[in-house]
Specification:
With about 550 residues, the protein is of the alpha/beta class. It is built from 21 helices and 13 strands. The protein folds into three domains: about 240 residues, Periplasmic binding protein-like II (D-Maltodextrin-Binding Protein, domain 2), CATH 3.40.190; about 200 residues, D-Maltodextrin-Binding Protein, domain 2 (3-Layer(aba) Sandwich), CATH 3.40.190; about 60 residues.
Length: about 550
């Protein structure tokens, strides 16, 4: 088995349209540092697309072997062995190990030889695509957040016959049809301009919501209670900043740190029904708008500015990315943090946003906050979530040079994982007794398991284990605490990141990077006092139009007629 080497190419940077479209963006802020930085699965791009699992009311309680589907993994011993070049994803720019435990398990189970790409990460994927070598990769993960339209137009990926999904991956398609609805697939919701360019993937039955986690021990030490309103949240953040909540006699804490345009300070924006500034939505009359150009966004940004000036938001929120925020949270610098619901699940082990703090400060020192109300809008504070779609983080795209036989072999592998609970459990969680244990029907991940450990073994749903997971697999890892926290997180009413499917939009591809730049610069300048929300607002709107916002909206509206 050969190791593919990344060509050393000095090429022009990929076009901005190469990155995810439809208003979604990757975090590009500076990285943080701290004593627990290596504990976290921080810095993952595309998390705005992350989906979430929700527990079923009556989840099966059978053991893995008892719950195994009657449909056994297909015997492919009589077919010609296929060599599959596989490019997957791990966070923190960690790459998979060649000849890993999971790779060998797949090779032993299916009639394939897997050649993993071991030198490409989110950090250098654009250079790899620019080299053209991705056309030779059999399949690669949508985790890399590449623009599928661009790849197809440039001849880097191939189309696959839609009927192959139902012929070779029927169990997975049945699971997704039950979750997304038959109409979703009948109407071509999984297609791009009528073409099937990827395997559908939805991590869980429901969509991922943002969650607010906080230092419960700080709150109790200050004789306060969990907030129920936006004003009470403000008061808690103020106390976390100025009332020495950790009791060390030093002025070294802040209420919260946030990430620009990644769910950011959503309790404020959510009070106005806004997800993130760079998202587009459509009104009932068919007119499209950018969140960051709304008058309500202006008001919300004004509140955020007040909180920032008070000092209750960490000043480095201007440049902090997800890794930096997590580091401050785990180091006890901030008392509150926003992240995705799926990141408090116990199967995350030491990388859980609860565990990364409790491993330092003690069990039960953090908690998940329930829904708040506000005096704005209709009184509801909405959390935001990913709009349901089949282009999930672990969808697979196929290189332009992938043969029909290779594509079919991959689909059969996905089907095998979708039908065999025991196999999929191994691919997701590793070896029982080593990487996890079973306690009263719940799978408990070894809390010391890190991203590097997973990459060395080849496990986790970001690399090989991208088969559909049914309700049994969905609830296999949920502890009682997980279920309680899911109820708290789900108590926030949700609104989608965007409320319409993302059609092809050439104007967006051409102008969105400049529009996003105007939005982010205005956000930063307002917080820093270099611009304002009075006379600066009209200038900001004009700058958006000059950057091409009107052209993007016009094309959206034309295509949706």
């Amino acid at each position: 088995m050969r190791k593919r080497l990344l060509p050393l190419i000095l090429s022009l940077a990929m076009a901005a349209s190469m990155l995810v479209g439809c208003g979604q963006s990757s975090d590009t802020g500076g990285s943080g540092s701290g004593k627990v930085e290596e504990q976290t699965e921080a810095g993952a791009s595309g998390d705005a697309q992350e989906s979430s699992a929700s527990p079923e009311e009556d989840a099966p309680g059978a053991s893995i072997s008892e719950a195994e589907d009657a449909s056994e993994t297909e015997d492919t011993s009589g077919e010609e062995k296929q060599e599959i070049t596989w490019l997957g994803y791990y966070t923190s720019n960690i790459t998979v190990t060649e000849n890993s435990w999971a790779e060998q398990l797949l090779e032993d189970t299916f009639n394939v030889e897997i050649d993993p790409i071991t030198d490409v990460t989110a950090e250098n994927i654009e250079m790899y695509v620019a080299s053209g070598d991705i056309a030779d990769v059999t399949c690669f993960s949508y985790w890399f957040n590449l623009d599928k339209n661009y790849l197809y137009d440039q001849g880097m990926i191939r189309e696959i016959p839609e009927e192959w999904l139902w012929e070779y991956y029927p169990t997975g398609m049945k699971i997704y049809s039950e979750w997304l609805g038959e109409d979703f697939f009948q109407n071509g919701g999984h297609l791009i301009d009528g073409k099937c360019l990827y395997t559908p993937y939805v991590e869980g039955k429901t969509i991922s919501t943002a969650c607010l986690v906080y230092r419960k021990d700080w709150m109790e030490r200050l004789n306060m209670t969990e907030p129920t309103t936006l004003d009470e949240l403000h008061d808690l953040l103020y106390a976390f900043t100025y009332n020495d909540p950790d009791g060390n006699g030093k002025d070294d804490t802040y209420g919260i740190d946030v990430i620009y345009n990644w769910r950011g300070m959503w309790p404020i924006f959510g009070a106005f029904g806004i997800s993130t500034p760079n998202q587009y939505n459509v009104r009932e009359d068919g007119t499209v708008y950018l969140n960051g150009a709304l008058e309500d966004y202006r008001t919300a940004l004004g509140i955020l500015k007040e909180w920032y000036d008070e000092g209750i938001i960490h000043p480095e929120c201007i440049t902090d990315d997800r890794a930096a925020v997590r580091t401050k949270w785990a180091n006890g610098t901030v008392g509150t943090m926003v992240d995705s619901q799926t990141w408090f699940y116990s199967f995350r082990g030491a990388s859980s946003i609860l565990a990364m703090a409790e491993d330092v400060f003690g069990e039960g020192t953090v908690d998940v906050m329930s829904a708040l109300t506000s005096e704005y809008g209709d009184g509801t504070i909405y959390s935001n979530c990913n709009y349901p779609n089949a282009a999930g983080v672990a969808s697979l795209l196929f290189g332009a040079n992938a043969t029909d036989e290779q594509v079919i072999a991959v689909l059969k592998m996905l089907e095998g994982m979708a039908t065999d609970h025991e196999l999929l459990t191994k691919m997701l969680y590793g070896e029982e007794g080593v990487d996890y244990t079973m306690v009263d029907g719940q799978l408990c991940v070894n809390p010391e398991l890190t991203v590097a450990d997973k990459a060395e073994k080849g496990i986790d749903f970001t690399f090989y284990a991208v088969g559909a997971t049914d309700p049994y697999m969905e609830t296999l890892t949920f502890s009682q605490r997980d279920k309680e926290n899911i109820d708290k997180s789900n108590s926030w009413p949700t609104l989608p990141m965007t409320n319409f499917d993302c059609p092809v939009n050439a104007a967006r591809d051409q102008y969105q990077s400049e529009v996003s730049k105007v939005v982010s610069e205005y956000y930063t300048n307002v917080l820093l006092g270099a611009d304002n929300l009075e006379d600066g607002w009209d200038r900001y709107l004009q700058n958006l139009d000059n950057a091409g916002l009107g052209k993007i909206i016009a094309e959206y509206e034309e295509r949706m007629q």
